[in-house]
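Model it.
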Amino acid sequence: MTGLDTPFITSWSGGKDSALAFHRIRRAGGRPTAILNVLDETGERTRSHGLRPEVVQAQAAALGVPLWTANASWAAYEPKFTALLARAAGAGATRAVFGDIDLQAHRDWEEQVCAAAGITAALPLWLEPRRTLVDELLGLGFRARIVAVREDALPTAFLGRELDAALVGEIEAHGADACGENGEYHTVLVDGPDFTHPLDLVPGPRGIHHTGEGSLRVATLDLVLK
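Modeled.
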């Protein structure tokens, strides 16, 4: 955990886990320098959750924190992300915050790129019970909507729904993880204790679009600012 007034950046997906990680470090006295996000090659969607960049920009504005982005193919993702981390280190940030919970391969990669950039990885949610984290998130007043589902795990009818205790129960009833840590679903944060105002998102013209095949087939809902 960071100390009082320690400058940090957050790898910001736009979803609930990175938001909770950000909240914990800020509450512990950390000072946010920026949030980081990698977009696709065109700059039209975020790599991790398929969000429009203006949605993530609106989240940054609600946080009162700068957003730093880079466009990258999957092949170029690591060097582009490492460059963002190096920029953060050059701006004085000493910690890079990630919202991963217990996937060791993710942690190994994050520590590797942080070491290359001269910054320390911080994972404030690490090894905590997944369901406990969801309950904490809801109890703190975070509001998030499901923006993507892995189609072999959850029905597309879940897209657009706001995460609450009842929906978490439905997710678990389908045999999926409450947190979606295995990629069963992704969320977009629309409000929370660190936001100065909520975001009003509505379905966009693209509707639901599909990517991947088989167990990697994902349905993503296009959301735009109202």
